[in-house]
Each structure stands twice: as structure tokens, then as C-alpha cells.
């Protein structure tokens, strides 16, 4: 092969490479998710429904003391679909309603409020997720009512994703 053939082959290869890379679309066809969509997926998952539990290594504390035994079998399921954001809760020891709606509080999408009449309802609940673990933190202030007064305190729920 002579020098002209080598140079011609080099330029041909370079030209084809440039054309190929210029025609490749590196952008995704999926639109970017909003901060609210990302936060919703943290709670409700990609499918729009996720259940979190105390079982299998979760825990609950009130004012720094472990009270996990009071919430044995506790589960909360966050649902987000076309009809809205709802939740269900079981074995909550009268702290959460058995079901209701939830909304984000503020603009950082790291706090929620649950509807209902139980002590955890209508309180700002901070949440953080780390892989298959979800932490809920909130305060139930001491009201006039003696039943709810027994439930007053600062709660931390460390929950595990239920598979």
C-alpha cells in the first residue's frame, strides 16, 4: 500500500467517524423528572405504591426511647396515582389514621402531611430515604385531651421497604 492510499483511508475513516458521531443523539427521549416526581417516587416507588414496615429490622422511638414493641406489625403504604396521593396504615397504636391523603409540605419535597384525625395527622413529617430504608420524624404536641396527651412526643420511625 502506498502513502496516498494510507492517507486516503485515514481521511475516509475520519470522515465516516465524524459523520457517525454527529448523527448520534445523546439526549434521552424521556423528559426530566421534577423534584416533586422524584420525591413522590421515594415514598410511593416507581409503580406508584410502596409499603414500609417496622418488621425485619425497623424501629420506632419516642423522645429518644425505643417503643418499637408498641408498633409491632406497623405498616404504612404510600400510593400516588392519577386520582391523587393516599396512604393506608395498620397497627399504628392509634397514632395514624387507617387511611387518608398525603401532600408535600413546603417546596423542598422532604416533608409531608397526612390527613385524618389521629395524633400524627396534620403534622409536618420529615422523611429521608436511603435505599430500602425510610425515616419519618415528627412531633405530636401535648394537647388538652388526655388520650392524645399520652401519645405526645417526638417520634422517629425507621422503616424497611416491604417486598
Architecture overview:
- This is Lipocalin-like domain-containing protein.
- It comes from Cyclobacterium marinum (strain ATCC 25205 / DSM 745 / LMG 13164 / NCIMB 1802).
- This protein is an alpha+beta fold and 163 residues long.
- The protein has a single domain, classed as Lipocalin (Beta Barrel).
- The protein has 3 helices and 10 strands, in the order ααβββββββββαβ.
- It has helices at residues 3-23, 35-44, 146-149; strands spanning 49-53, 59-62, 65-66, 75-81, 84-90, 99-104, 111-114, 125-130, 133-140, 153-161.
- It has an 8-stranded antiparallel barrel with strand order 1-4-5-6-7-8-9-10.
- Strand 6 and strand 7 form a beta hairpin.
- The chain is elongated, with a radius of gyration of 26 Å.
- The N and C termini lie far apart (65 Å).
Which labels suit this protein?
single chain, 163 residues, alpha+beta, Lipocalin, 10 strands, 21% helix, elongated
Secondary-structure blueprint:
Elements: H1 3-23, H2 35-44, E1 49-53, E2 59-62, E3 65-66, E4 75-81, E5 84-90, E6 99-104, E7 111-114, E8 125-130, E9 133-140, H3 146-149, E10 153-161
Antiparallel strand pairs: 1-4, 1-10, 2-3, 2-10, 4-5, 5-6, 6-7, 7-8, 8-9, 9-10
Organism: Cyclobacterium marinum (strain ATCC 25205 / DSM 745 / LMG 13164 / NCIMB 1802)
Protein name: Lipocalin-like domain-containing protein
Amino acid at each position: 500500500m502506498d502513502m496516498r492510499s494510507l492517507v486516503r483511508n485515514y481521511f475516509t475513516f475520519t470522515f465516516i467517524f465524524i459523520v457517525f458521531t454527529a448523527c448520534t443523539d445523546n439526549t434521552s427521549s424521556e423528559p426530566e423528572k421534577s423534584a416533586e416526581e422524584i420525591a413522590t417516587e421515594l415514598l410511593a416507588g416507581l409503580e406508584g405504591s410502596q409499603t414500609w414496615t417496622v418488621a425485619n429490622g425497623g424501629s420506632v422511638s419516642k423522645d429518644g426511647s425505643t417503643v418499637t414493641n408498641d408498633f409491632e406489625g406497623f405498616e404504612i403504604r404510600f400510593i400516588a396515582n392519577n386520582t391523587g396521593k393516599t396512604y393506608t396504615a395498620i397497627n399504628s397504636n392509634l397514632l395514624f389514621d387507617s387511611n387518608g391523603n398525603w401532600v408535600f409540605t413546603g417546596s423542598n419535597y422532604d416533608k409531608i402531611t397526612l390527613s385524618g384525625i389521629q395524633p400524627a395527622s396534620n403534622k409536618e413529617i420529615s422523611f429521608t430515604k436511603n435505599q430500602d430504608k425510610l425515616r419519618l420524624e415528627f412531633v405530636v404536641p401535648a394537647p388538652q385531651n388526655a388520650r392524645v396527651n399520652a401519645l405526645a412526643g417526638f417520634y422517629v420511625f425507621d422503616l424497611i421497604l416491604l417486598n
